[in-house]
Design goal:
Largest sheet: 4 strands, mixed
Structural class: alpha+beta
Strand content: 15-25%
Number of domains: 1
Radius of gyration: 13 Å
């Protein structure tokens, strides 16, 4: 299997795992940070990413966005949608341009 196909499968696998962390009926406004798994394309990556449920929900509002550790951004394959000191939100460069947004730098 080509590396790019395995890498994409890796991203979607951890995206699905992170979505299972959400508890039905949970309070999206909670300021408590939960640990999610980096959704980068690095095979074998299990780096923790800390987000509130609200931050996670905002990322998931746009299809094709992934949460990664800032050091795991692949600039050739991904575009940065948002960047904080603890995580980045990326989308694949092959995603339809209509889904792209401006890069937002969030201060912590």
């Amino acid at each position: 299997m080509p590396r790019d196909v395995r890498a994409r499968q890796n991203m979607y696998f951890f995206r699905e795992a992170n979505e299972r962390i959400q508890q039905p009926g949970g309070d999206w406004r909670s300021a408590q940070r939960l640990v999610f798994v980096c959704e980068c394309s690095n095979l074998g990556c299990r780096a923790p990413v800390y987000l509130t449920l609200e931050e996670f929900r905002l990322v998931r509002e746009t299809p094709g966005q992934f949460i990664v550790v800032p050091d795991h951004i692949h600039p050739i394959d991904e575009r940065v949608v948002a960047l904080t000191s603890s995580h980045a939100v990326v989308t694949s460069v092959d995603v339809d341009e209509a889904l792209m947004t401006e890069v937002r730098i969030v201060e912590r």
